[in-house]
Amino acid sequence: MKYSEAKEKYIHAWGTLGSSWGVNRTMAQIHALLMVSIEPLSTEEIMEELKISRGNANMNVRALMDWGLADKVLVAGERKEYFKADKDIMKIGVQVAKERKRRELDPIIKLLNEITVVDGDTAEVKEFRKVTKDLQKFAGQTESVLDLFIKSKDNWFFKILGKLR
Amino acid sequence: MKYSEAKEKYIHAWGTLGSSWGVNRTMAQIHALLMVSIEPLSTEEIMEELKISRGNANMNVRALMDWGLADKVLVAGERKEYFKADKDIMKIGVQVAKERKRRELDPIIKLLNEITVVDGDTAEVKEFRKVTKDLQKFAGQTESVLDLFIKSKDNWFFKILGKLR
DNA sequence: ATAAACTTTCAATAATACTTGAAAGTTCAA
DNA sequence: TTGAACTTTCAAGTATTATTGAAAGTTTAT
Asked: What is the pLDDT of residue A163?
């Protein structure tokens, strides 16, 4: 397969995957682009490559930096800002896990803590309490796993997987 | 907290969570509703409770069944269909993992297999190959973990977690 | 066969999310 | 200070996705 074709497919696919992961398409595409480029890219270059506007490029590059998935790179003697992505896939995984935990799991845990103290003792309320307590437990376990993953310096996750098989 | 308030918050939150998980809001809300109700619910009851149209209720109930998260229940002597959700949170987790793997991971693995055979040996192409191979490896490992999780009869995931801490 | 009870479909509409591009803001060298 | 080089903002426009509701389809009892 030709490089240009492969690159295009890859960027496109990454965008699609991103959208089913709560990350918007363009942000995922910029990330994909930075992942495979050798040199850091400027906003101009990103705009050009992905055929997007300046505003869009700017917003999504900032979002990537928010997520800890891209960094500014200053080139000596240049005013322009350049951007690069970390290419270590495990680090990316950790970053994404961290962000999603913060944005999604944490609020859910907070909510569950609030609502499991619902008053009453009708069958309905008992059932509600049972279900939400189960969810709370599950959320707690998930949190523990994610915390371990996030804090892991090396790759315990897959080391364990190796032992299991 | 009053039951009605707690229930409302819970359904609302579940809907929000759902949307950042690739499941649409209404589908997640119907699921939340079925999770806490003691009896199976009819389309009418779902419409009433969530203030949604018949078409919407019907479509999303079907989607839930597609995902394996809800089942039809036939009540003797009734024409109407009723629906219930499995309340075992681990089973739900497994179902969701299964569906998402099929819809998201599988296509990515397929794509990576295609594009890692890109031809050329410029620095650019070499980098591309390196990055996509890493992704391929990561995707493969993720697949293995998911498969283990999906096939697990009991809860190995958290048993191991227990041993780790 | 008919009709009542119920479910499904789908074109139109509404809601949401994304993108643009030009104007405003910032920084810095001279 | 000025103005050129660059970045950020945001209102308006576009695209995408979800929802409605009425009509068409299906099933079952009689």
From this structure: 65
Residues A56-65: b if buried by 16+ CB within 10 A, e if exposed: bbeebbebbe
- Chain B residues 8-67 with CB within 8 Å of chain A: 9-10, 13, 17, 20-22, 35-38
| Domain boundary residue, one of B85, B118, B144 | B85
pLDDT at A149 > cutoff 60:
yes
Q: What is the pLDDT of residues B20-66, one digit of tens each?
A: 777 899 999 999 999 999 999 999 999 999 999 999 999 999 999 99
Q: Whole domain around residue A149: which residue ranges?
A: 89-164
Q: Do B124 and B152 sit in the same domain of this protein?
A: yes
Q: Contacts of residue A86 in chain B, CB cutoff 8 Å?
A: none
User: Which of A26, A36, A41 lies closest to A71 in space, CA to CA?
Assistant: A41
Strands A70-74 and B81-85: unpaired
| Residue ranges of E strands in B3-105 | 41-42, 70-74, 81-85
